[in-house]
Structures are given as C-alpha cells and as structure tokens.
Design brief:
Blueprint (H helix, E strand, L loop, with lengths): L14 H34 L1 H37 L3 H36 L4 H16 L1 H16 L4 H24 L3 H27 L14 H32 L4 H37 L3 H38 L4 H14 L3 H16 L4 H25 L1 H43 L4
Helix pairs in contact: 1-2, 1-6, 1-9, 1-10, 2-3, 2-4, 2-5, 2-8, 2-9, 3-4, 3-5, 3-8, 4-7, 5-7, 6-7, 8-13, 9-10, 9-11, 9-12, 10-11, 10-12, 11-14, 12-14, 13-14
C-alpha cells in the first residue's frame, strides 16, 4: 500500500517518537475542545444568565450518554480500520471503510431517534426542575437530534487517525471551534434564539468540520477512496466493526453511569464539598488529558502493528510510552504539590478556606496514583488496538461496581476521604486486571502468528 504525507505508517521508526508525534495533534485538539467548552459556557452565561447554565447542567448527563454511544462506536471503527492499514491490505481497508459507512448510517439515525423518544422520560427520572424543564428540553432535543453531524465528523476523524493522520482533524476542529464561537455570538447574543441557538451553532459547526474533512479525504487521501465495488456487506467484517465499536461505547457509557452514581454520594456532603470536588475534578481532568492522549495514540499504534503482526513492536512501544507517561505523571505531581492551591483559587474564584483545602486535599491524594492510571489507560487502549473487546467492558463494569460500593460504603463511613480514595482504588484494581489480560493477549497473538507461519510452511502458495 502506497503512503503519502496524509498518512503515517506507525509500524516503522522509533515507537516512542512516532507515538508522541502522532499524539501531539490529538492533545492540541483536546485543548481546543476544552477552550471551546469554556468559551461556549461563558457566552451562554453572560447572554442568558444562570438559569440557562443550570438548564444545560441538568441534561448534560443525558445527552452526554448518547454522545458516548456515538463517539465510542466511531473509536471502535477506527481501531479495526487501523489493522488493515498496518497489514498493507488496501482492498481490506476499503471494504472496512465501506462497511463502516453502512453501520454508521444505521447507528447515526437510530441513536438520535432513541434519544429523542426517551429524552423527556429521562429528564423526569433525573428530577429536572419544572422551572427549567422546557428550556433544558429545547436545548437537549436539538443537541441529540442533530448529533449525527458530530458522529459523521468523528467517523471521518477516526478514519484519518487510523491511517496515522492526526494533524488534519486538528485543523478542521480549529475551524469548527472558531465557527461555533461566531455562531454562538450571532444566534444567542444578536438574534436572540436563546439556548436552542447555541445548540444549532454547535450542529452547524460540526457539519462544517465534517464537510471539510470529507473534502480533504477526497483530495489528499486516495488510499481510502471507495467505489461501488467495495460496498459488499461482509457479515464477519460487520460483526468485527460493530463489536469493536460497542466495546468502546459501553466502556464510555458504563463509566458515565458510575460517575453519576458517585455524584449522588457527593451531593449529600454539602454545597462546599460539592463545589470543592467540582473544582478539583476540573483540574484533575486537565491533568489526565496528557495521559489519555498518549493512550489514544497507542490504540492506533497497536492497531497498525497488530495488523502487521509486529507484537514485539507493540510491547516495545508500550514500555516506552509507559516510561514517558511516568515522567509526565512526575511533573504533574510536582505541579499540584507546589501550585495546587493557586490553581484551585484560580479555577473556583473562591476565597473559602474549607473549599480550597478540600480541593487541594483531593488533588494531593489523587495525583500520586497517576502512575497506576498511566498503566491502566495505556495498556487498556493497547489491548483495544489488538482487538480485545470484552476486557475493557469487564474493566468498566468493575469500575461501576467499585463506585457503587464507594457511594454506599466508603462515603458513609469515611465521608469525603472515601470519595477521594475511590478512583485510586479503582485504578489499582483495574490496572492489575488489565496487565494480566495484556500478557494473555500477547501470548495468544504470538501463538496464532506462529501457527499461521507453520501453516504457510506446510502449505506454500503455488
């Protein structure tokens, strides 16, 4: 399979260098997404007031759930496609993309329809206040109803990343973010469309990024151009794509469900603790971004090398990225222990001593376990790149169970200390499980490779 500047073969070159170079645009994309979220909230808050922000917050877990189903599915597709690229199977690559399109059309229609049908019942289940019910519904219904545009972009982004191109999606995301901000100002502030205007702005900007990505692929990436002949539905391939996508989707949604349960326990600890935890989590999530970005890059790296049968290279890349992640974790720990208090004050804008002390306490307990978190995240995505589907789901179910136990037991007995101990305990237990699963997966893959080599020796091609 020929390559050009629009693709990167991660089966060659220094594993750490290739992974870091591939991860940098993904990291920048995450930064721009965070900046967009902050800007979006700021525009809505200043233009529409606190009630609008409360309305968004009241339904964020609902549309976040459906977004996870769609984002997870696109991530799973990308992992399968990366294996065909790594094995230099151009015919298989195009068939995988064609079958991805088939599933995407069905999934992209089905999830929004189910979301719209279940939106009001879910809002009532979550006890959305009557005073903001209609406003919240008007926003969430647009976000869910037009989420196909986000899904299309993520599928196209996944195709590009699966062939080693993480730069182009960054450029189109920047255009999307800028467009979204301009449309927010126009629809919300100038034209007075209210909260639905912000949702329409998001959908239009996502549609634009999808269109730009499609044009880029058509002009710059001939390797993934498909024809009518490629649209042959393959039951085995569809099953592989769907199960890979579902494994990611369920992982994200189960984690979201666990977070909702844990939040319920936090809500019983008082307003100051809620505010402190919210602030600490924002800082913690920003810190996690570096590790999760490396982990996402490893999924593609492992996928391409698994397709090429380079499991020795996967192990080498995993070791290198883990040691690099440990270095990042060390720097983050030093940052939190020296500047954590100032960061809490900056993010929260609060001078309440109890709030600041509680948030700093959480961060100083949480961050040292980033070494364990690095092992969990990087090894889990490496496994997913190698085709493991059930291991991430089992790990997510373990996380859900542990969060339920924390909410019902530790938080009651230990108070906020129990909440702070929750994730370190979960990371440690799940990391041990993931390491064992990885060792088994590598041995199985090597055994299959040697078996295939033996078969070729016994039955050489004529």
């Amino acid at each position: 399979m020929s390559t050009n500047r629009a693709t990167t073969d991660l089966t060659k070159g220094n594993p750490l260098k290739m992974t870091i170079l591939f991860a940098i645009p993904i990291f920048l994309s995450n930064i721009f997404q965070q900046l967009y979220n902050l800007t979006d909230i700021s525009i809505i808050g200043h233009a529409l007031g606190d009630d609008a922000l409360t309305a968004i917050g009241s339904v964020s877990t609902i549309y976040g759930f459906f977004n996870s189903l769609m984002f997870g599915m696109s991530s799973g597709f990308a992992v399968v496609i990366s294996r065909f690229f790594g094995s230099h199977d151009e015919k298989g690559l195009k068939k995988a993309i064609a079958n991805t399109i088939f599933i995407s059309v069905i999934w992209g229609i089905l999830v929004p329809v189910i979301g719209l049908i279940s939106l009001k019942p879910l809002m009532r289940l979550l006890h959305t206040p009557d005073s903001i019910f209609d406003t919240a519904y008007s926003y969430a219904s647009v976000v869910i109803g037009l989420s196909m545009f986000m899904f299309i972009y993520n599928v196209l982004r996944g195709i590009l990343q699966s062939i080693g191109n993480s730069r182009a999606p960054l450029y189109f995301l920047i255009v999307s973010v800028a467009t979204n901000i301009v449309l927010d100002l126009l629809f919300v502030r100038k034209l007075g469309f209210g909260l639905p205007g912000a949702a329409y702005a998001t959908a239009i900007s996502q549609a634009l990024s999808s269109l730009l990505t499609l044009i880029y692929i058509w002009i710059k990436v001939p390797q993934v151009h498909i024809t009518r002949a490629d649209f042959v539905l393959n039951k085995g391939l569809i099953a592989e794509l769907f199960t890979s996508g579902i494994s990611f989707a369920l992982m994200f949604t189960v984690v979201n469900l666990g977070s909702m349960i844990l939040q319920g326990a936090i809500n019983n600890l008082g307003n100051t603790t809620i505010a402190a935890h919210t602030t600490a989590r924002k800082i913690s999530e920003l810190c996690m971004m570096t590790l999760s970005t490396l982990a996402n890059a490893m999924a593609t790296f492992a996928g391409q090398n698994h397709g090429a049968g380079r499991h020795d290279r996967i192990k080498q890349g995993l070791r290198s990225v883990l040691f690099f992640s440990f270095g990042i974790a060390t720097l983050l720990i030093l940052l939190i222990y020296t500047l954590g208090e100032k960061m809490v004050i900056l993010i929260s804008g609060s001078a309440t001593e109890e709030l600041i002390d509680t948030a700093v306490f959480y961060l100083r307990l949480d961050l040292p376990f980033y070494f364990v978190l690095a092992v969990l995240l990087v090894t889990r995505t490496t496994l997913q790149g190698m085709g493991a589907k059930f291991v991430p789901i089992i790990a997510s179910i373990m996380e859900l169970i542990l969060k339920i136990v924390t909410a019902r037991k530790l938080a009651v007995v230990l108070g906020y200390l129990g909440i702070a101990l929750c994730e370190p305990i979960i990371w440690t237990v799940c990391a041990i499980y993931i390491i064992i699963a990885f060792r088994i997966a590598v041995k199985k893959a090597e055994k299959n490779r040697l078996s295939n080599v033996a078969d070729q020796d016994l039955h050489p091609a004529v």
